[in-house]
Write a sequence for this structure.
């Protein structure tokens, strides 16, 4: 019988949810490369910090998957944006969307890893960091509300 990808060798690592989180991290790394072409140079430090954080989270997630015996999903060659990115405002909206997507993906990991407090903590850190970045980008964009209830949930989008 073939093991489903959602099952881990120990039954503790939610491989499917981690693959979705990894895919969201891949997309976020790509997004920050695009966003950097449209926002003022004064935001370069924040963009770089966000991209670096997503790269580190991506790499750590790949290691978790490899340790669980699952080949990590590769990044896509490109991503479809929800709207054309043509200026700083649309670029900031894309950054908010990327962070919201990352938060949702990591929330799913939290829900699916009740037996692994270490992984739950990692996922909670990732969700929290994404929610904070999304709030900061909303503030920069002048979007309201600045924060959302329950980041990572559909109503928190």
């Amino acid at each position: 019988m073939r093991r489903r990808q959602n099952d881990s060798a120990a039954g503790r690592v939610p491989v499917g949810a981690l693959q979705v989180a990894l895919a969201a991290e891949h997309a976020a790394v790509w997004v920050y490369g695009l966003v950097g072409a449209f926002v003022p140079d004064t935001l370069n430090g924040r963009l770089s910090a966000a991209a670096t954080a997503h790269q580190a989270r991506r790499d750590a997630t790949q290691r978790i998957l490899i340790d669980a015996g699952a080949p990590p999903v590769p990044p896509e060659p490109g991503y479809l944006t929800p709207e054309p990115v043509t200026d700083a405002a649309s670029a900031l909206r894309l950054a908010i969307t990327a962070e919201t997507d990352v938060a949702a993906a990591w929330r799913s990991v939290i829900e699916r890893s009740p037996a692994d407090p270490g992984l739950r903590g990692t996922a909670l850190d990732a969700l929290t960091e994404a929610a904070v970045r999304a709030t900061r980008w909303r503030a920069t964009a002048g979007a309201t509300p600045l924060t959302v209830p329950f980041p990572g949930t559909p109503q928190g989008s």
